[in-house]
Structure of UDP-glucose 6-dehydrogenase:
Amino acid sequence: MPESLRVGVVGAGYVGLTSAACLAELGHAVSCVDVDETKIAMLRAGEVPISEPRLPELVAGHQEAGRLTFGTDLASLADAELVLLCLPTPTGRGGTADLGAFDSALGTLRHVLAPDCVVAIKSTVPVGTGDRAARVLGLPVVSNPEFLREGHAVADFLHPDRIVIGAHEERAAARVEALYARLDGPRLRTDPASAELAKYASNAFLALKVSYVNELAELCERVGADVTDVVGTMGLDDRIGAAFLSPGPGWGGSCLPKDTRALLHTAEETGMDFAVLADAVAANARQRDRVVAKIRHAATGSRGGSLAGVRIGLLGLTFKAGTDDLRDSPALAVAAALAAEGALLTGYDPGLARGADLADVQLVDDPALAAKDAAALVLLTEWPQFRELNWSQLAQLTERACLVDCRNLLHPAEVADAGFTYWGLGR
Ligand SMILES: NC(=O)C1=CN([C@@H]2O[C@H](COP(=O)(O)OP(=O)(O)OC[C@H]3O[C@@H](n4cnc5c(N)ncnc54)[C@H](O)[C@@H]3O)[C@@H](O)[C@H]2O)C=CC1
Ligand SMILES: O=C(O)[C@H]1O[C@H](OP(=O)(O)OP(=O)(O)OC[C@H]2O[C@@H](n3ccc(=O)[nH]c3=O)[C@H](O)[C@@H]2O)[C@H](O)[C@@H](O)[C@@H]1O
């Protein structure tokens, strides 16, 4: 029987809340602490503030069973055997990770934690952060990066591709490993610096892969090839893999952009020019500009046409399908660029609650309202339900039946039959 640990989780966001609920599911006694009083009050009332499959059931069930508690006071972690830090590490000055929230929590925890407590860092933090935290706390600090994806958070946590444990001391590493005793998946023991870097290296490689495909899509257009068949061929090679080969409006979300910036900053600090990564980031901005040019062309009938006063309907605003997260969403970056040229934007997203307040887009709760009188309809997020829309009806509602599919989600022939002139990426 694997041992049950008294676990403290600091931060109740995507990573913290998912970890807390899943660790309770694995049989541990979990106390989750966040400074956000509103969020904690919601969680105590059984409401989960983010949209993640299975999370509400786990939170409600384990709270009721007494295995999961929520609070705002870090002092409640005094008897924890293991504390997981799941604090935000957004972009700070010069592109580096801002460790403000992290340091503020450490400042309190150093007076609170028991002398035999082990601390694990789940946040994505620059190399050396764990060792620095160990000095501040006077406790062993293990790097245990998290690889879950938003929209799949619970499933990814409970079925990890790998569990990475970067530690100096065996005793501390063993305690973190005990946390996951009930989970399958390869364990990788290493030093803290390698674990910290492995997390950035993974996210940066995913970004690189998508930037490569976005540039490839451009080349396909120039030479008259179809990117779907090109990446279909590539993906069948096990060494390349089929995942992360879909062209889109650029990669975004709360992590890939900030983590590529932070890794570039780390390289810079050592005097290294990480040129291939720097260009993947630059390619992401080029991709947004290309998408905007394509929309301008579709909506005005000319490459350099003016978008002033032109009505454009947007389908999908979140940074990818299956989430309600708008942080660093490429769809919003495209919207901002269109709005800056004077376009009038109406947007529909199945993941967003009505009444969400967006700077550049009037949010509507029906795709027909986004299509109405639009000079172009632009699909920006790959929600699968968009495939089932009544495209003939939407075509009739638009002013000019032009459709820019920035995710290559739809069958060009089908939407053409519905009456649309279709633009995809690289096809
Ligand atoms: N979102 C994701 O899919 C993943 C995120 N990560 C990493 O995990 C870390 C956390 O990310 P998210 O969970 O997305 O962030 P988040 O923004 O969703 O949640 C962070 C939580 O920490 C709380 N907080 C801030 N300061 C605090 C303090 N001093 N004490 C206690 N709580 C405090 C905030 O109120 C918030 O609820 C980041 O380093 C991120 O890069 C890693 C893997 C996946
Ligand atoms: O560190 C993190 O926070 C997490 O960041 C990403 O997860 P996530 O931010 O949920 O988003 P992804 O699914 O990776 O998508 C990132 C972006 O790339 C885009 N993308 C992805 C794949 C693809 O083929 N094409 C493409 O444009 C998505 O639309 C999205 O904008 C990683 O996939 C997780 O492993 C990691 O734990």
The first helix runs from residue 14 to 25.
